[in-house]
Structure formats: structure tokens, C-alpha cells
Amino acid sequence: MEKDKTVSNTTIRRLTKYYRYIEELNSKNVKIVSSYTLGKMMGISPSLIRQDFNAIGEFGRQGHGYQLDTLKQEIGNFLGLNKVHNMIVIGAGNLGQTLANYDGFDKVGFPIKALFDINPKLIGMKINGVEIIDLDNLKSFIKNNNIDIGILCVRKHCVQEMTDILVDAGIKGIWNFSATDINVPDDVKVENVNFSNSLFTLSYLMNDKYNLA
Amino acid sequence: MEKDKTVSNTTIRRLTKYYRYIEELNSKNVKIVSSYTLGKMMGISPSLIRQDFNAIGEFGRQGHGYQLDTLKQEIGNFLGLNKVHNMIVIGAGNLGQTLANYDGFDKVGFPIKALFDINPKLIGMKINGVEIIDLDNLKSFIKNNNIDIGILCVRKHCVQEMTDILVDAGIKGIWNFSATDINVPDDVKVENVNFSNSLFTLSYLMNDKYNLA
DNA sequence: TAGATTGTTAATCGATTAACAATC
DNA sequence: TAGATTGTTAATCGATTAACAATC
Fold it and tell me: Signal sequence: where (chains A, B) (predicted)?
């Protein structure tokens, strides 16, 4: 509703990180933090932290710092963490099952409501209380269970096909763990977790050539 | 050996992505590609692609484009993908086992040689042919098996402890899947895969406020 | 040769840092 | 009040885009 100036992608990524550190400090019963202290903890310049916070609001107290509960609330609101996002997993293989077994997402308001697969041997099984359902029932399940996010954990050769099914079923966001990029219409949002990109980046960093003085 | 001007982090990430697309084109028996075509496929401007390629060498052919096999080799070399990187997994829980079950890393020269855990029930088991070993044997295993990369898949409360053990054992790179950031000396390289950061970014993108016209 | 596309420089755009007045 | 730290503007730095001469 308010007129927001656009916030850059780099700032968004840092905001998600601030949020983690804020929760950490919260659990240690810290009540207030300065941009200097937070910057020291996170390896980010105090100046940049203030720029980031001011990009989404104005909630510091001059001469004191930032109240952690306000900070958490403001960043959480901005990132959309104030509401529940129901998720489903497409592909009940190793990775899909691992994600279903992890309770951390549920705890922060991102519960996994079902896994979908085409393998008849898997259908009907429960993983950590979450049922594996036949892919044929995807569309109605999404509608009836208020599903926002589809987690893609399928093999390369059927990634786009599964994406199209999700889009057709009205999904709003796709968390893509598969090895390929996907094409979606503009109103569907995609976040990729690409293991290969990540591993190859690590490889580069470890490269001797790079590490010359 | 050559004097390399530093290549920016954004360029590195894109290079890993080019590499994926090049392999894809390779498998379709394409032999040559122009920055224009590749840019169209990847949603990156041709100009930026040429800048990226020229940051690591000079291997296009004016009027024609880039030979895919040269391109693959040059980028691969630059990223350090020309040699085998032996890996181990710390923490043989769900995620650790899932990674061990995935053969894709092995195929590109990043084999997982062992999993480590402290749970006696797990020790001795094999996952996809990879043994789960007692953490006590970590140091000697790293030395004797030429291990480069440690994959961290442990719970928050022992992440830093495990990191210190890895560092002490002489690991060169850490692929960190745990929920917290870690501290390492400068000569140890870290690449984080933080699910929470990624999920929260997706949450932001799906946020209505952001999607106002 | 003519056409296409690179390699590279210059121009623009955006993100980070520095600095400091405002103020708690 | 004095000290501390924010909010914000200006300066710097870096990354992307545009343009075009070089050349295959």
C-alpha cells in the first residue's frame, strides 16, 4: 500500500541474513543492537546496514541503536514472513523426503502439506507425517489447501513439464532444487537452489591460480 | 601462472551457469554459439556475456561466435573443474545421506568418499556404497584420502565445533549446508547453501506489496 | 567481398562507503 | 549536558550496457 521505492536484490538477500542474526540475538535475550555491533558480527559495514534498514523503514533510535523486536517485526513484515505459506513438494525422492523430514520450515511458517509423485510404490506413504500423493491430484490439492509454494525436486528431463503443471494449477512461487532453470510466466516467482552453481563456485575459490598473492 | 586481473564474484556465478548451458548445448551436439543466442537462452545481455568471457581469456571468433568445446574447456579450467575434488560429508542425517545418494557430483569430478557421524547406530552403514565412519577417524581419513572439501550437514549447535575439526584436519574448502554461518581462517574457502535465506527471498518475491504495478 | 559477431573502450547505471548533521 | 548512534546526502567504487572498430 505504501509507495515503496524498489529495494535491490542484494539488499533483500542481506535482509534475510539480518533476520537470522536477529533471531539468534533474540534467543540470547539481547534487546537492542547497533549497526556497528551487528556489522562486526556479520562482516558487513555499519553504513550498509543502516542503508538497508532505511530502505524498508525507519525504526532506529539515534544514540541507542535498533530495538531487536521492532527490527525483527519490520524485516519479517517486509519479507512476508508474517503469514503462513503452505508448501508442497514435487518429487518424493531422496531430496524431497529430506525436505519433508526437516521441521525447520514449519517452525517459521512454511509447512509442507504434501509430497507428489508418480511412482505407485511411494504413493500413500507418509514422511514425517506428510503424505505422498499421486500427481494427478495436484491441481485440486493446491486449490483446496491454499498452497502458495511448490518445491521442485525432480530430475532434469521432467522439470519443465512439472513446472507447467504447477503453473497451470495456479501456484504462486516455485522453489527450484532441480538441476535446470525453468520458464514461468511473470506472475509466478522462482527461487533457484542450484547445487552445481554453488559447488563450482567453491571449486573456483579453492583454485590455486586464484589464490596467488 | 598468468597474471589474472581479479574476476568479480558476479562474473564467477555467471560462469558456473554458462558452464551448465554449454554442457546442455554440447549434449544436443551444437558446436558453436554466439553471445546473442546464449544471451537469449539465459536471459543475460550479449554484451555482458562477452565481458565475462573476456575476463578469463580470449577465445571467440569474430563473425562466428564461440566454439563450445573451447568454451567449456576454458571455463572449466578457470573454475578448477579439470581436476578431481574428493569430498566427505560431516553429519550422516537425512541431508547428508541424500547428498551421498546423488551421483551427479561424482559425475562431474566431485566424488563423496565417506560420511562422518558420532551416532554409533549409523557408523559402519553404507549409503550408495559410501561408508559412514566415526568422527574420531576424520583427521587421518582426510590426510590419507586426499580430501579437499568437507560438506557440513550438522545441526546448528555443533556447526562451529565441526568446522574447527575440519579446519584442524587441514580441509581446504567447506560446503556449508547448515543453518548458521561459520568462522574459518582466510586460507579455508567457504560456500554457503542457506535454505532459510533462499526461502525468505522467495517469500519476499511473492509478497503483494512488492507486486504492485 | 559482405555480413556477422567478437573484443574493447566509453558511458551509464547502481551499489557501497564516507561523512556528518540531527537527535535520542 | 555529553556521548553515542542513527538517518541521509555526497563521494566513490564497481558492474552493466552501449557503441563501434577490428576481423573472421
Answer: none
Q: Is A100 annotated as a binding residue?
A: no
C-alpha cell at B32: 558453436
Q: What is the pLDDT of residues B4-27, one digit of tens each?
A: 468 999 999 999 999 999 999 999
- Residue ranges per structural domain of chain A: 9-79, 86-198
pLDDT of A207 reads: 87
Which run of H or E residues covers position A189?
A: strand A189-192
CA gap A132, A114 in Å, rounded? 6
CATH code, residues B86-198? 3.40.50.720
CA nearest neighbour of A19 among A64, A86, A66: A66
CA of B57 to C1' of C11 (A): 24
Handedness of CA A58, A59, A63, A66 (dihedral sign): negative
Regarding beta strands B147-152 and B86-90, do their DSSP bridges make them parallel or antiparallel, or are they unpaired?
parallel
Q: Which one of B4, B199, B209 makes the best mutation probe of the A interface by having the most chain A beta carbons within 10 Å?
A: B199
**CB-to-strand C under 7 Å, chain B 177-206:** none
Whether residue B149 and residue A105 make contact (CB cut-off 8 A), yes or no, is: no
Nearest-5° Cα angle at B205, B175 to A91: 60
pLDDT at residue B213, rounded to an integer: 39
pLDDT in tens, A119-157: 999 999 999 999 999 999 999 999 999 999 999 999 999
Task: Provide the pLDDT for residue A6.
Answer: 83
Listed in sequence order, the residues at least 6 apart from B165 whose beta carbon sits closer than 8 Å to its beta carbon are: B135, B138, B139
**Separation CA B20–CA A181 (nearest Å):** 10
One-letter-per-residue 3-state SS of A35-60: HHHHHHHHCCCHHHHHHHHHHHCCCE
